[in-house]
Amino acid sequence: MKALKSYVVAALSTFALAAPVAVFAAPTTIKVAYENHPGEPADLVMNYWADLLKERSNGEILLELYPSSQLGSKSDVMDQALMGMNVVTISDVGFMADYEPDLAALYGPFLTENTEKLFELYDSPWFAEKNKSLREQGVHLVITNYNYGDRHIIAKKPIRTPEDLAGMKIRVPNNVIQIKTVEAMVATPTPMPLADVYPALTQGVIDGAENPLSVLYGQKLHEPAKYLSLVNYLTTAAVWVGGEAFFSTLPEEQLALIHETGREAGLYSQQLAKESDAKVLELMRAEGVEVIEPDREAFKAKALTVYEQFPEWSPNLYQTLQDQLK
């Protein structure tokens, strides 16, 4: 009996050594960095995307969300992405002009008031060629149909005409097209990260800032600045971008799923953008903000001169885009 027991133990030991050990691959994790605070539309959309991607991939692809500039400024995160790190961030094609100059025109002032037509441009063969060029230069666009909202100006004094902006320092993102646009509208553009805007307003470093309503309210900029001018000089068709060095390492089926769910998140952003503005205006008015309907045609006349200030663009680029928008 003792010999039989020894034989069984030995056999089981041999089987254990021979049996393959199940190895479960770790999920693919992508860090998502953005300047917006929790609860803002950008944060809501990213949570929606994270849940959707986790469900569709059966937990194989996970998004880790880092709101409120936790991973640094936009430029810091872009540097991380281009170095091959597993990170994406929100940007716009104005920042992509360093790689493809023509893309800045998509971020030009008063390009169109038809948001649907604007997003059709991002699905056009013209944009597909630009996207291909970006990828060859190491830039990977993950979402291209994200609606960040219409951009207005909040300030410490009323703004009804471009002349009211004279001498005022207005915060802008650090991209050339927006800097030139605000300059054309007679203000002094002051680039800085979004996280620095609130203290800059309270300390008098700047006199105002431009952004969509949901961002102006989410960043609480209506506390130090009580005049909201509905200039609506730009509809922000934003992109979520990472580095090709990372995304090229992913299996094709994972990459396709990331893009597919990202597009659905973009559609959700468009829905949120339509719903949020009226609510934000109501909240701002309730908190003592004066909402101004400015002379938009006067701002437009000033701003359209920007399209003549980029000799590096393809010939007749503005008209080419207008033709496609029609």
Quick tags:
326 residues, globular, 9 strands, 21% strand, nine-stranded mixed sheet, disordered N terminus, alpha/beta
General description of the model:
The structure is a single chain. This protein has 326 residues and is an alpha/beta fold. 42% of the residues lie in helices and 21% in strands. It has 12 helices and 9 strands. The protein has helices at residues 2-18, 41-56, 74-82, 115-121, 125-136, 176-184, 197-202, 213-218, 244-247, 252-286, 296-303, 317-325; strands at 28-33, 61-66, 87-91, 139-155, 169-172, 188-191, 208-212, 227-243, 290-292. Strand 5, helix 6 and strand 6 (188-191) form a beta-alpha-beta unit. Helix 2 packs antiparallel against helix 10 (252-286). The longest helix is centred in the last third of the chain and has 35 residues, at 252-286. It is globular and about 60 Å long.
Indicate the low-confidence ranges by residue numbers.
1-24
Number of helices: 12
Major sheet characteristics: 9 strands, mixed
Shape: globular
Question: Total number of β-strand segments?
Answer: 9
Radius of gyration equals 24 Å
Alpha-beta content class: alpha/beta
SSE succession: HEHEHEHHEEHEHEHEHHEHH
Determine the mean pLDDT. Answer: 92
Measured by DSSP, the beta-strand proportion falls in 15-25%
Helix content: 40-55%
Distance, first to last CA: 91 Å
